[in-house]
UniProtKB/TrEMBL annotation:
EC number of this enzyme: 3.2.1.131
Gene: aguA
Domain Glycosyl hydrolase family 67 catalytic: start-end pairs: 126-446
Similarity comment: family membership: Belongs to the glycosyl hydrolase 67 family.
Name of the protein in its database record: Xylan alpha-1,2-glucuronidase
Length: 676
């Protein structure tokens, strides 16, 4: 069985707190007879055993805690609770009330799942060593669909996965229900993730065959009591591959009939099936364009058929074509923005956070704010494709926070991306969602790098509430996973928070992007120039020449800038006012351009590369003092990984500076150590 992530309940706890907690949770009444109720019971018992060396008696006589749906609460308790604040089916209330001079803790909500969420939240208070004597918490998710996207192939490999193989054992399913499926559901439920797309966006169609649907059904049955729905990537050409039809044209009657009966078959097995994720006409995947049809025609055809079952279509906007001479960064916007308002209500357009592809830093995707009549779903990557993969420590909630808090000005100042995707900005919005490309695999610690667990955790937290700060996530995760010791938290929180800027600095400072080595995207490759498609070459993105560095996306260049709102255009269309973090994304900048620090671009870029290296050194130095707080395996593994990260940060610095120097023709600044 795998590690228990942030749910091991094994952090050190002093005796006083142990006694206090023990005295308060001895007798619990769970007033629900569902599978979810059993899960709640098991979880609380695990907490008691592991954290408090005690056991709970589940009883209806003089309980200290009552866990019950609001409708099942005795009216004398119910009247003390503000049930108005249960705004949706996943909201919960944890509240201490006084009855006959005695404290009683109530965990309530409208559904079993809300009770599960409330229980996990309550447990978290104990994990964080909070005072629970007069607890009062009301919470509810701000985003409806909080979904992991597994890029898992049916052969067990995981595209862009760095944590072993797929945890789905298609061979042994449906008969064999591996323990890890339950552990997976538990971990996700604890952070509010309520959906999972089981298969890769580059998928073959077999997942839709009847034998595979049986396997999918087994997983759906396991996940259901944890509040998790199953979704599938559907290959658009499935009617050809499985149905032996000559076409997959979405307007063709036979094609529609094929999907119709396939969908009905799915819902017979899985009545709460979530719906389809589709990658269409992107990177060689089939789609409606193949038949002269639009994204809208493709998406709406499936949406119409899913509608009677309350299923959704998550149609990805990650499209770009080498046949176009247009800047890749502009293509998704050009293709999708004109369709605003044309998608059916159960279609979500799933947009990556930036216009290129999960880089260490990108400006936000200009579709956010540009499609007010469409449900836009955020797609983040949790797996670290362009971010050092399995070996670099990079705390991604910091990246997510930067994106989510970005102002799009779509409805005036304060129109953050968080407010677009959680629907706050557009009250008419029907469905809201956030997807994260999973970093989970068969490694015993789930994620390969021990600290990559924090990215899974953080994604869940920010999908629940996109205004959650990265810092609070770091503190929670560190406390729940290792220890609440304040010395540990004080030193490790900044390490996590700064790790994102470190990777930007040693890989792609100042707005550089997509200069990783080709195909695998690991390590530096600014020289890549001979890929089959121009937009897969690094030189396409950095455009280094004797005059300077960077991609001119202003009016004199591709003018991708014009896709952004005027407030951003105003600031970014002046080379002196654009934030330097985005400089080389939008400008081709002379090597001797004077930066804000008074030095040249060349010098400053070198400074950032060195800064990134130094930051990793700092991480190593901090970590050296952390041995007393973590178990030896984690200590040693992380120490070795940081050593790799440090040498690779140097590799990045050296490779990029030496490569760019042939164009800059300027000496390396004195602070750069001699490059071997
Ligand atoms: C990236 C990634 C691919 C993936 C694609 C996508 O380009 O490298 O492996 O298929 O994104 O999101 O569809």
């Amino acid at each position: 069985s795998s590690e228990e992530l942030w749910l091991s309940y094994s952090q050190p706890l002093n005796n006083k707190l142990k006694e206090t907690y023990t005295s308060k949770i001895k007798h619990i009444q769970i007033k629900t007879f569902s599978e979810t109720g059993e899960i709640i019971k098991t979880e609380l018992q695990m907490l008691a055993t592991k954290m408090l060396d005690t056991s709970i008696s589940f009883t209806s006589t003089t309980p200290q805690i009552i866990i019950a749906k609001i409708d099942n609460l005795d009216s004398k308790f119910k009247q003390k609770i503000n049930s108005q604040s249960l705004v949706n089916n996943e909201s919960f209330i944890i509240q201490t009330i006084t009855v006959h001079q005695k404290d009683l803790l109530i965990i309530t909500g409208k559904t079993d799942i809300s009770l599960l969420y409330g229980t996990y939240c309550f447990i978290k208070q104990l994990q964080l060593h909070k005072d629970i004597s007069s607890i009062s918490i009301t919470d509810s998710p701000k985003i409806q669909l909080r979904i992991l996207n597994h890029w898992d192939n049916l052969d067990g490999t995981v595209e862009r996965g760095y944590a072993g193989f797929s945890i789905w054992d298609w061979h042994l399913l449906p008969g064999f229900k591996k323990e890890i499926y339950y552990e997976y559901a538990r971990a996700n439920a604890s952070i509010g993730i309520n959906g999972t797309v089981l298969n890769n966006v580059n998928s073959n169609a077999y997942i839709l065959t009847s034998p595979y649907l049986q396997k999918v059904k087994t997983l759906a049955d396991i996940f259901r009591p944890y509040g998790i729905k199953v979704y599938l990537t559907a290959r658009f050409s499935a009617p050809i591959e499985l149905g032996k039809l000559p076409t997959a044209d979405p307007l063709n009657e036979e094609v529609i009939q094929w999907w119709k009966s396939k969908i009905s078959e799915i819902y017979k097995e899985i009545p709460d099936f979530g719906g389809f994720l589709i990658k269409a006409n992107s990177e060689g995947q089939p789609g409606p364009n193949t038949y002269g049809r639009s994204h809208v025609e493709g998406a709406n055809m499936l949406a119409t058929l899913l509608e009677p079952y309350q299923g959704v279509v998550m149609w990805r906007a990650f499209v770009y074509s080498e046949q176009q001479s247009e800047d890749r960064a502009k293509q998704a916007f050009n293709e999708f923005a004109p369709f605003d308002g044309a998608f059916k209500e159960n279609v979500l357009v799933q947009v990556k956070n930036g216009p290129i592809d999960f880089q260490p830093r990108e400006p936000y995707h200009p579709l956010f704010g540009a499609m007010p009549k469409t449900s836009l779903m955020m797609e983040f990557q949790i797996t670290q494709e362009y971010l050092g993969q399995g070996s670099h420590l990079v705390f991604l909630p910091k990246l997510y926070e930067e994106v989510l808090s970005t102002d799009t000005y779509a409805k005036g100042k304060g129109s953050t991306i968080a407010k677009i995707i959680d629907g706050e900005l557009y009250q008419d919005h029907r469905i809201t969602g956030m997807a994260g490309v999973a970093n989970i695999g068969t490694e015993t610690n789930w994620t390969g790098h021990p600290f990559a667990q924090a990215n899974w955790y953080g994604f869940g937290r920010q999908a629940w509430d996109p205004t959650t700060s990265a810092e609070s996530i770091a503190k929670e995760w560190l406390s729940m996973t290792f220890t609440t010791d304040s010395l540990f938290i004080q030193q490790m929180t900044p390490l996590l928070i700064n790790s994102r800027e470190a990777v930007v600095n040693y890989m792609t400072p100042l707005g550089l992007h997509h200069i990783m080595n080709a195909e695998h995207h690991y390590g530096p490759g600014p020289w890549i120039a001979n890929m089959s498609r121009p937009d897969w070459n690094s030189i396409y993105y950095h455009r280094a020449d004797s005059l300077g560095l960077g991609f001119d996306r202003t009016q004199t260049g591709s003018n991708a800038l014009e896709q952004y709102p005027k407030e951003i255009q105003e600031q970014f269309s002046n080379i002196h006012t654009i934030p330097e973090a985005y400089l080389l994304w939008f400008y081709h900048v002379p090597w001797d351009f004077k930066m804000k620090n008074g030095h040249t671009l060349w010098y400053t870029m070198a400074w950032y590369y060195q800064q990134g290296v130094n930051e990793v050194k700092n991480m190593q130095q901090t970590w050296e003092h952390m041995q007393p707080y973590v178990n030896n395996d984690i200590y040693q593994d992380t120490r070795m990984l940081l050593e790799i990260q440090y040498s690779e940060a140097q590799w990045w610095r050296n490779a990029c500076l030496l490569y760019f120097q042939q164009f800059a023709k300027m000496p390396l600044p004195e602070f750069i150590p001699e490059i071997p």
